[in-house]
Amino acid sequence: MVIVMDKRATEEEVEAVERKLVSEGYRVHRSRGVERTILGIIGDTAKLDPRELELLPGVYEVVRVSEPFKLASRAFHPENTVITVGQVTIGANEVVVMAGPCAVESRDQVLETAHAVSEAGAKVLRGGAFKPRTSPYAFQGLGEEGLVYLREAADRYGLLVVTEVMDREQVPLVSQYADILQVGARNMQNYALLRELGGIRKPVLLKRGFAATVKELLMAAEYIMAGGNFEVILCERGIRTFEDSVRNTLDISAIPVVHSLSHLPIIVDPSHGTGRRDKVAPMARAAVAAGADGLLIEVHPRPEEAKSDGFQSLYPNQFASLMEELRIIAAAIGRKL
Ligand code: PEP
Ligand code: MN
Q1: Do the beta carbons of residue 116 and residue 93 sit within 8 Å?
Q2: pLDDT-derived band of residue 67, with 50, 70 and 90 as boundaries?
Q3: CB 310 less than 6 A from any atom of ligand 1
Q4: Quick check: 185 pLDDT over 90?
Q5: Which atom number of ligand 1 is nearest to the Cα of residue 185?
Q6: Which of 47, 232, 263, 268 keeps 20 to 30 A from 124, CA to CA?
Q7: What is the predicted pLDDT for the residue at 44?
Q8: Which ligand is nearest to the CA of 146?
Q9: Which residue, by CA, sits nearest to atom 4 of ligand 1?
Q10: H-type helices in 160-252, by residue range?
């Protein structure tokens, strides 16, 4: 972190800033330009809040030269993180597609969907057994029964399971059934849950909160990594903006932004990202073209009967043709799908 002093700052003001930093355990390197004094702070600046330093008399500007997320930052880990689960690698050359219903509704529904998505080339079965719903009266999921159905269907069709864990108390139970534990958008800043997931040895799919910046998403990943779990997959799922023609605004630019700031893989959820079935395929194609490491897509055998998010779920045949298109796009940018 660098402190740029005001042109009119007095020697006393410069020394006061230096003293404060030294008293907090930092070393300070002073350099005198033609017009201004610049103080370079040496030490673990992740703990410093630039806004507090900016209020000190004589300070013009505080500039972070390294990000407050260390473990998630590419500066500290230049190589891409590649996460291997069973036969699947996420974050390498392959674009990994995770697909399935919004919610697990019945054994038959999950088996039927798993069969269809695996035939089309998906590698991971998604589906919520614990559902975070806006209304407390809406379907809340089947709970453990849903986890059993997911595991059975995934094993039968050679898929992995990704499913949401809503609460820190649920972590041991969900870990028994899931290969990848999902943190939903509403829980991105549930720090107790993130810390709990830092203590397990299974990959975590961390969804971006709908009012969170990319840096806040990376700080949330940092919580999991600070606990010792480095297998974090980020997920762009749309953010809330003033635009109301779609459910959320899918931030495609988050893909290259994450790739330059971080070594963690990033996948895209065009289903929640748009909230409309007819918008899912165009945004899925865009995400792969922009370099996403994977996709999370809602598919339901009969979307009109779905207990949640039927309007944004693809029919199995739509999913299969989308996969064909995605293969062409992936090949065009030198990736496999
Ligand atoms: C989901 O993927 O099941 C889900 C609830 O999405 P989000 O947390 O992004 O709203
Ligand atoms: Mn959903």
Answers
A1: no
A2: confident
A3: no
A4: yes
A5: 8
A6: 263
A7: 87
A8: 1
A9: 184
A10: 171-177, 191-198, 214-226
Ligand 1 centroid to Cα of residue 27, in Å, is 45
207 CB within 6 A, ligand 1: yes
Whether residue 284 is predicted with pLDDT greater than 90 in this model: the reply is: yes
CA of 58 to the centre of ligand 2 (A): 51
Task: Write out the two tokens for 154.
Answer: 């995934």
164 lines ligand 1 (CB under 6 A): yes
State how far Cα 287 lies from the chain centre.
14
60 to 10, 22, 300: CA distances (angstroms): 12, 19, 56
Question: Using one digit for the tens of pLDDT, what is the confidence trace for 213-259?
Answer: 999 999 999 999 999 999 999 999 999 999 999 999 999 999 999 99
CA atoms within 13 A on the CB side of 206: 34
Angle of helix 254-261 relative to helix 214-226, nearest 10 degrees, comes to 40
Q: Domains, the chain, ranges and CATH?
A: 2-63 (3.30.70.1140), 83-332 (3.20.20.70)
